[in-house]
Amino acid sequence: MTLSSCTAHYGEDSVGSFPYFEYNVPRNVTTVVGQTAFLHCRVEQLGDKAVSWIRKRDLHILTAGILTYTSDQRFQVIRPDKSENWTLQIKFPQERDGGIYECQVNTEPKMSLAFQLNVVEAKAHVLGPADLYVKTGSSLALTCILSQGPHDLGTIFWYKGSNIIEYKEVEANDIVEQPRVRLKTEWTEQLTSRLTISKLLPTDSGNYSCVPTMAESASVNVHVINGEHPAAMQHGNANTASPCALSVNLLISLYCTLATLYTSTVDGIR
């Protein structure tokens, strides 16, 4: 169902003082789970008519005038004194709250303007494996992306364990030594944050978390090693037998030796 298929339009060319909607407002609104959503309905020349908000999927009346007609107190209409704006506020929205909402005016015939609300679950993602092995003295580059949700998600913070990572912005033309820790966050088609740490030390090992303002975080475990092969650290050295295997081999060797001695002794007696 499209927005235009479920609305009755009245424009500024309406006769006399008949109410009309202001169309220069966002009508396809996207928010993230937990971030308060606002649907802005503006009605000009309302006169003695009333504005209501209806949830389309079940035709539930949410508000009428400035009064709320639902037990779900997350829904509320905001209308400044003598304003033409009738804004439906939805606190702590969940994905199930997504759908079409109608702003209605009790004219004859009834006027209605539809708004599409999209509620998405925004999650951050750190590129690469969950466990990262890097050598002492080399550089670490972590990239965190957030591709869902509107562009008002704020920014991204980086943590090592429970401690926020502090960094200092340095201009490219500054004649100073570049800091060991650098952070760059930018919007393109998505929110991207890059954490770079140069000249790694063993103490740089730990859990690094990318924490967006309005989305689920993501993390990666960083292991700073002194030249050991990561596979050896993860899976053990395939050429090195376990203590249990050594014990079994020793017993077999001892058994074979005793069997050989026994056979030699019997042959000598014969």
TrEMBL record:
Alphabetized SMART domains for the sequence: IG (SM00409), IGc2 (SM00408)
Cellular component aspect of the GO annotation: neuron projection membrane
The record, for PROSITE patterns, names: IG_LIKE
Q: Name one GO biological process term.
A: synapse organization
Q: Which residues form the Ig-like domain?
A: 19-106, 109-221
InterPro entries the UniProt entry points to: Ig-like_dom, Ig-like_dom_sf, Ig-like_fold, Ig_sub, Ig_sub2, Ig_V-set, Zig-8
Q: Which PANTHER family match?
A: DEFECTIVE PROBOSCIS EXTENSION RESPONSE 2, ISOFORM F-RELATED, DEFECTIVE PROBOSCIS EXTENSION RESPONSE DPR -RELATED
Q: What is the name of the protein in this document?
A: Ig-like domain-containing protein
